[in-house]
Design a protein that fits this description.
By secondary structure, the protein is an alpha/beta fold. It is built from nine helices and ten strands. It has an eight-stranded parallel sheet. The chain has a two-stranded antiparallel ribbon with strand order 1-2. The longest helix has 22 residues. The relative contact order is 0.14.
């Protein structure tokens, strides 16, 4: 397959998101048990304050999640996810100018959040839950399809691949075809290889090094490595709160290797680093042109 031309923007509901420069997606977990910041933003005021701060720090997207998908996480009920998610989406849409992304696999959350102003669906299960394809199609929003081997409660027990790139290719081929059959055009899709979601350290490093491979469908690539256990392992067992510099390095490598969007906890540090990366990439593009 050749190298398809990437669109310079993504239409997020009524809002265009420019992809001419690297985009920072800030993570807003409104859960009590997320691996890095669980419990910090479970009140509406704290969540809204964090969204405002992330936008000020350089986030163009705010990714709101109401169900933890960390390794070993247990699912929450649909009603609990709705109760956590929808008031925050409504408040952020009213008070913050950044585009809202919703981190969910639940069809009812997709349609409910879209009605309140969300602009992007970010699904770790790639619209595989019953009804998710139809729900996502009905919103008209772009969708990020992520690869995960297994489910959050078991995905890191023994991840195995014959060839990690070939198996992810087959997965995305199938999910893109399913989306198109459901009326979701490829112009509305993003690709996320799913760092840490059913992958060993060796798999994660190989995927980061070869991230440009996933541009083959002509869809923007999203990379999420912020504070993840692979970084802790590379630092000799560093705990979550000591992975800032490694997280920024991973974001820089992601963008240099082809990612259009990076999903991060530490927005200001990442945005500052990517300002330098962006200058280099613009220079490189001008030299090539």
């Amino acid at each position: 397959m050749g190298s398809p031309v990437m669109s310079s923007f993504l239409q997020c509901g009524t809002r265009p998101l420019s992809l001419d420069r690297p985009v920072v997606m800030g993570i807003l977990n409104v859960t009590p048990d997320s691996f890095s910041d669980g419990g910090r933003y479970i009140t509406l005021d704290s969540a809204l304050h964090q969204a405002v701060q992330m936008q000020a720090d350089g986030a163009q997207l705010i990714d709101i999640g109401a169900e933890s998908t960390r390794p070993g996480a247990t699912p929450v009920s649909l009603q609990e996810e709705l109760d956590r998610m929808l008031p925050v989406v409504e408040a952020v849409a009213r008070e913050v100018d950044a585009i809202i992304s919703i981190d969910t696999s639940s069809p009812q959350v997709m349609t409910g959040a879209a009605a309140l102003g969300a602009g992007l669906i970010n699904d770790v299960r790639a619209l595989q839950r019953p009804g998710a394809l139809a729900a996502a199609a009905s919103t008209g929003l772009p969708v990020c399809l992520m690869h995960m081997q297994g489910e959050p409660d078991t995905m890191q027990l023994q991840p195995r691949y014959e060839n990690v790139f070939a198996q992810l290719d087959a997965f995305f081929d199938a999910r893109i075809a399913a989306c198109e059959a459901a009326g979701i055009s490829k112009s509305r899709l993003l690709i996320d290889p799913g760092f840490g979601f059913g992958k060993s350290l060796a798999h994660n490093v190989a995927l980061l090094d070869g991230l440009a491979h996933f541009r083959r469908w002509g869809c923007p690539v999203l990379a999420g490595l912020s504070r993840k256990s692979m970084l802790g392992a590379l630092l000799g067992g560093a705990p979550v709160d000591q992975r800032l510099h490694a997280s920024v390095a991973a974001a820089v490598l992601s963008v240099m290797n082809g990612a259009a969007i990076v999903r991060v906890h530490d927005v200001k540090a990442t945005a500052d680093a990517l300002a330098v990366v962006s200058a280099v990439l613009r220079h490189r593009s001008q030299e090539a042109g």
